[in-house]
Amino acid sequence: MPLDHRAALALAVDSYAAVLERGVGEPTLLARPVTGCPGWDVRALTDHLGGVHRWVEIAIREGHGRGSGEPAPAEPAALRDWFRVGANDLLAALDRDAETPVWSFSREPGHDRLAFWLRRQAQENLVHAWDAETAVGTASSLEPELAWDGVAEILEVFVPRMRARGSLGELPQSVRLMATDADGDVVIGDGSEPVAGITGPAADVLLHLWKRIDGDRLTWTGDVAAGRDVLARALTP
């Protein structure tokens, strides 16, 4: 059964909003550092994610990537409400046929359809909800199939994008990525036979690729040093 990215997005938004709700009663939570986003606290992460919601909604509605929305307010209850308004507007914009033509930042084939943003926003909010929950000590587990879809998205969207931006050169070797709780495996690299492999829960593979967790939580095979070198490169923004 295909993944329901819109439902996954709504769930991730609810998880993030629950952190902000806690922040209304305990404002110091909003100052907790977000380890996966160095230099940011939960408030800064919220400013970013709420801004993304507004930017994507405008991109879908107006067909360009130049949009911006109102800045995040400082007061905790107002910040919570601001986040929810932007998320609801985004969900409404995504409530149409997945094949609807849209603008997107990706130049890869097929990424000019609403399905691109459904998937991208499900994954964006999934990881950032984990960031926020981790910062306040309430991180929940990621659904394996959705996490593995996020791994595939990195290969299909962000590796080409990082190369196009000049942030990622040609990878010197290949690494096989395998999940213990999701179907399939993927190879990232230069197209050669993999010199190393990593295995672990799909969520851990995804979070490692997004540089949220250390690779020591995964099982490595082959030339571990070469494999770590490949995965340490700028595969994602």
TrEMBL record:
A Pfam family of this chain: MDMPI_N
Domain named Mycothiol-dependent maleylpyruvate isomerase metal-binding: residues: 28-132
Record-level GO cellular component terms: plasma membrane
InterPro entries according to UniProt: DinB/YfiT-like (IPR034660), Maleyloyr_isom (IPR017517), MDMPI_C-term_domain (IPR010872), MDMPI_metal-binding (IPR024344)
Ranges in coiled-coil conformation: none
Residues of the MDMPI C-terminal domain: 145-226
GO MF term list: metal ion binding
NCBIfam families from the UniProt entry: maleylpyruvate isomerase family mycothiol-dependent enzyme (TIGR03083)
PANTHER family assigned: CONSERVED PROTEIN
Protein name, per record: Mycothiol-dependent maleylpyruvate isomerase metal-binding domain-containing protein
Annotated organism of origin: Nostocoides jenkinsii Ben 74
Lineage: Bacteria, Bacillati, Actinomycetota, Actinomycetes, Micrococcales
